[in-house]
Each structure stands twice: as structure tokens, then as C-alpha cells.
Write a structure and sequence with these properties.
By secondary structure, this protein is mainly β. It contains six helices and 24 strands.
């Protein structure tokens, strides 16, 4: 068995990627943000304060004949950008790309932070990181992919994200026609609950490869590519009009600049992010904000959507490995 669901950018900046998910019986369809950087499936619901839920599609468990409340269970999550949500827990049938999981934990939000209230492009998140990162207490719940994996043809899923265009999340199979190059696999370390891997070097434009060990995660829920300061400073050193803009909290540059590409090693291969994807978004007038920014020394780097857009990424739970193929 397999599943295949389209995704699309939420706005003109590719801030996030949205996929429609069916929950309950009859199906309630919600636009959700698939996040390989977290492990909770949570939704705006009939239990979310109306003032917070305004503009969002909600899940109403009482209208689903297959919903069951998980007695005594609660959840609470804070993301790296300090957005947060919390609530209680139901199980219900959740269908993604035609593949149904029965008894999936659907975490209903009774509280959401302002970032989520204001982001009306999504009605919640589908966490696709490892089960160990799930926040439900007293009994941790499994992700949709974890529940699906034993029934899928292969315990894998792929992310195909594109700039201002539709892409896909495929489950149980790898469509290699989505890529232009071969898939290179690297092992993941599972200790932190992420799809975490190490990249040994990087290159800027046509420059030579620089040895630099990056411990990072493949994170579809983060918009940008966030790397160590030394790499980021070296990159913008090659961009004549670039400066660090304290008000924007990142590097900006003249929108007319022809930005160099950025390449990172994946095993013995490399993935190249074209400069066009690093010219991320206008901030005002002729000033643009970079899609490569600092990881602020948080101790881990984040290969977010700006990096993933350049590749087909294979999340291989069966072999505990990540695959990257140039697109
Ligand atoms: O907090 C992170 N990432 C961290 C960034 C800093 C460094 C550590 C990782 N990802 C979040 C993301 O920003 C949210 N956001 C909503 C608005 C549109 C853009 C997406 C969305 O909600 C949770 C998750 O996805």
C-alpha cells in the first residue's frame, strides 16, 4: 500500500507548505503543515477558543462517528520559534493521500499562540519526526507515519517541495522521476528524535569545498536554511550589498543581486541550492531577505524548506537513514 498527497506553498514567499488531510467520519478536511521537525499531529478544533479559531478550518470530534476521547491525556508543545499550542487528545481515522490510519492520535488545541492564530493558512500540524518527540502525557502517541509504516509497501516517505508550485508527500514508495540526480543516503542519529544527519563540507558558488562538520535536521516545518555563523558569514561575504540587518534579525541585500549558489555535502555527494532560492523575499523597497541565515548557535543546524526545495528528500524509517537527490 502507498499514499500520495500534493502540497502547495501557503503564500508568495513559500513560508510553509500545506497539505489537505481528512479526519473522521464523515471526513473533515483540514489544511495542515507537515513538519518533519516535530512529532505531534495537532489541529484547531471545536475546543479552540472561537476568537483564536477565526479564519481556520476546525475539527469537531463530536461530529465524527469514529472519534474517541483519550481519557486523561494532554499535550503541550513549544517550537523553536517560540510558537506554542496545547490541549487534549482524541483518536480518529486520519487519511493522507488516500492512505488511512485508524486510531490515530489527533491532538485537539484548547490553546494556541498568536503566531498560529495569525497564520490562517494552516489548521494545525502533522508531525513527521520520530515518535520519541511526541508530547502527549501520560502516554506518548505515535505519528501518523509511524502508525502507517508497518502497512506501507516500504517504511519510507518523501518530501518534494517547490518554489511557488505544487509538490508532493509520498508514503510507501520513492518516485525517482521527481529527481534529476541519484539518491545519496546518510545515516540518521535518533537520540534527539529528529531526522538528524551530519554534512562534512560546503561550497559557495563555484568555490572550493570547505571542510565543516554540520550536525543538522531535515525540517519541512522550518522555512529557511539555518547554519553555523561561520558558513553564513562566508556566504554573504560573497554578496556585495549584503549586510546584517538588526531590525530584520538576518542578512539582507539588494534584490537585484545575482546570488551565488550554496552546496552542502551529503555523504560523498553534494546538494546545490541555487542562488535564486536564497533570494528569499523582499522586506521593503529593493531590499531582500536571505533564505540562508544563522542557526543562532542553538547547537543544531536546520535544513529547512529553502534546502529541501532543491532536492527530493527520502525519510527512510526502516533503515534509519535520510536520502537526498538533486532536483
Ligand atoms: O519553530 C520552527 N523551527 C525552528 C526555527 C528556529 C530554529 C529551530 C527550529 N518551526 C515552526 C515554524 O516556524 C512555524 N511557522 C508558522 C508560520 C509560518 C512558517 C512556519 C510552524 O509551526 C511550528 C513549526 O512550523
Amino acid at each position: 500500500q502507498t499514499g500520495s498527497a500534493p502540497n502547495h506553498p501557503s503564500d508568495s514567499e513559500d513560508d510553509e507548505y500545506i497539505t489537505n488531510v481528512s479526519i473522521g467520519t464523515p471526513a473533515q478536511v483540514l489544511p495542515l503543515d507537515f513538519d518533519t521537525g516535530s512529532s505531534d499531529l495537532w489541529v484547531f478544533s471545536s475546543e479552540t477558543p472561537s476568537s483564536s479559531a477565526r479564519g481556520h478550518t476546525i475539527y469537531t470530534p463530536s461530529k465524527s462517528s469514529t472519534s474517541k476521547k483519550v481519557s486523561g491525556a494532554s499535550w503541550s508543545i513549544t517550537y523553536g520559534d517560540n510558537s506554542s499550542s496545547s490541549g487534549d487528545v482524541y483518536t480518529d481515522t486520519v487519511t493522507i493521500g488516500g492512505f488511512s490510519v485508524t486510531g490515530q492520535a489527533v491532538e485537539s488545541a484548547t490553546k494556541v499562540s498568536t503566531q498560529f492564530v495569525q497564520d490562517t493558512s494552516n489548521s494545525g500540524l502533522v508531525g513527521l519526526a520520530l515518535d520519541s518527540g511526541n508530547t502527549v502525557k501520560p502516554t506518548k502517541q505515535k505519528t501518523w507515519f509511524s502508525n502507517a509504516s508497518s502497512h506501507l509497501a516500504q517504511p519510507v516517505f518523501t518530501a518534494d517541495l517547490n518554489h511557488q508550485a505544487d509538490g508532493s508527500y509520498n508514503f510507501g514508495f520513492i518516485d525517482t522521476t521527481l529527481a534529476s540526480g541519484p539518491i545519496t543516503y546518510v545515516p540518521i542519529s535518533t537520540g534527539n528524535g529528529f531526522w538528524e544527519f551530519t554534512s562534512a563540507s560546503y561550497a559557495i558558488g563555484g568555490g572550493s569545498s570547505k571542510k565543516h562538520s554540520t550536525d543538522g535536521i531535515a525540517d519541512t516545518g522550518t522555512t529557511l536554511l539555518l547554519l553555523d555563523d561561520t558558513i553564513v558569514d562566508a556566504y554573504y561575504n560573497q554578496v556585495e550589498s549584503a549586510q546584517y540587518d538588526d531590525s530584520q534579525e538576518g542578512y539582507t541585500f539588494d534584490c537585484s543581486e545575482d546570488l551565488p549558489s550554496f552546496s552542502f555535502a551529503v555523504g560523498s555527494s553534494t546538494i546545490t541550492v541555487p542562488g535564486s532560492l536564497i533570494n528569499f523575499a523582499p522586506v521593503d523597497g529593493n531590499t531582500c531577505f536571505g533564505g540562508l541565515q544563522s542557526d543562532d548557535g542553538i547547537g543544531i543546524s536546520i535544513f529547512g524548506d529553502v534546502a529541501i526545495k532543491a532536492a527530493l528528500v527520502v525519510f527512510d524509517l526502516g533503515n534509519k537513514r535520510l536520502g537526498w537527490a538533486q532536483k
